[in-house]
Amino acid sequence: MGKKRIEPDLVTLQAAADELPVDRVVRLLADPAARYAIVLLHDEPTRTLEELADVVTGKTASVEGMIATPADRDRVRIRLYHVILPRLDTLGFAAFDADAKAVTDADIPDAVTDALGVTDSSP
User: Fold this and answer.
1) pTM summary value
2) Low-confidence ranges of the chain (pLDDT < 70)
3) DSSP tag of 45
4) Tens of pLDDT along 92-108?
5) Which residues form the DUF7344 domain (predicted)?
6) Which is deepest, 31, 40, 49, 93, by most CB within 10 Å?
């Protein structure tokens, strides 16, 4: 993911208004941690909460030019568990099993990944 900040292209999302609840998706994408989690789940559709917390915390620290602390990771993990992953589940973008603390079967819509500038790296 690098040090580059991921910003959503709202025009691309608006073009998919017939397919997505755009207002709910925009609300989700307003959170940088949610954007980073979506990119991770696009690349690897099955992730544990711990893996997501590690990478999202690292990405956030990298973009902000900071060193992440255990407290930063705890805040990200709690936000993922209680807010971001349940929203992804509600939107149908991923199956979040709160008991197993894992995401399975993520299927991020093309309009969302396009809005985030995510491209498949397949040849």
Assistant:
1) 0.85
2) 1-4, 17, 120-123
3) S
4) 999 999 999 999 999 99
5) 27-104
6) 93
